[in-house]
Amino acid sequence: MSKITIRPMEPEDWDAVSRIYLEGIATEHATFQTTCPPYAAWDASHTKDCRLVLLVDDVIAGWTALHRVDPRWCYRGVAEVSIYVGEQFRGHGLGCHLLAELCRQAEEAGYWTLQSTVLQDNAASRALHTKCGFRLVGRRERIARDCHGRWLDTFLMERRAAADEPEGYKKL
């Protein structure tokens, strides 16, 4: 039996986190990104709270983080989810553990809406988000081109906090 642990992401985790991110990029259905940014750029674009890594037997197997969708005060409780599981760890339900913990911590931190943009070819991600309480709120048709120039749709999925005003919303 493998030991599964979820803990806050540390800057020292970046080598493993970026490797997993690059594995996601290589699938061509996890993100429109084609390169992994340096840590400083990634760090600046994600919230400082709710950054998690999932370890299997002390090896980082996945990560998740939030990105604010809008800097305006009225949207302070709305964030977009990034979640990636390493290639060798996919298909074992680890993403569900990680996303469920992110949702729990996000509510504790005061986020009232989490959203995720899922590329049309990523059925596994749509299923994961649905299993963790996200619902489909829209489909954006031909929203962007992939690295081969092919137009792709994205699905916008959303999860609302259980309470309209989660415990920590005033500190956001």
TrEMBL record:
EC numbers: 2.3.1.-
UniProt-listed InterPro entries: Acyl_CoA_acyltransferase (IPR016181), GNAT_dom (IPR000182)
Keywords (A to Z) from UniProt: Acyltransferase, Transferase
CDD domains assigned: NAT_SF
Transmembrane feature ranges: none
Domain N-acetyltransferase: 4-162
GO molecular function: acyltransferase activity, transferring groups other than amino-acyl groups
UniProt xrefs under PANTHER family: N-ACETYLTRANSFERASE, UPF0039 PROTEIN C11D3.02C
Identification of the protein by name: GNAT family N-acetyltransferase
